[in-house]
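pinned: reference chain
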Amino acid sequence: MIGENIKQLIHQKGITVDFLAENLGVSIQNIYKMFKRDSIESKHLIRISELLDIPIGRLFGGMVDSTYPGKSNKELESEMDNLSNEYSRVLKSNEEQIKFLKEQVEFYKEQSESYKIMLNTCLSNFNKNPE
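pinned: its structure tokens
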């Protein structure tokens, strides 16, 4: 169970439940619930792997052994590390794209407001001097 693996890893690294909860932005009660779960949100897995300074694959421990028979633990860990690194890279890229798009939206909002002001000024001047 992944929650149990995380519990063991944070204990080994000397990380407290309070620290983990604070860094994940969840309550302490949710951390204890997480320890009992078979699945955890990917954003939490990424953050936990960063806090523990380990690849995401290590959070799964021996869970993948029975799912992928015939592959060594080293091969599985390498594949999990590659996948988690790729996932982190894509997630960061998506976050950067979202930030860029938000900046673009703000720019166009400001530009739109400027055009409204200019248009109102022109209309006001035209109404004062309709020639």
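why pinned: The mean pLDDT is 84. Helices lie at 2-13, 17-24, 28-34, 42-52, 73-128.
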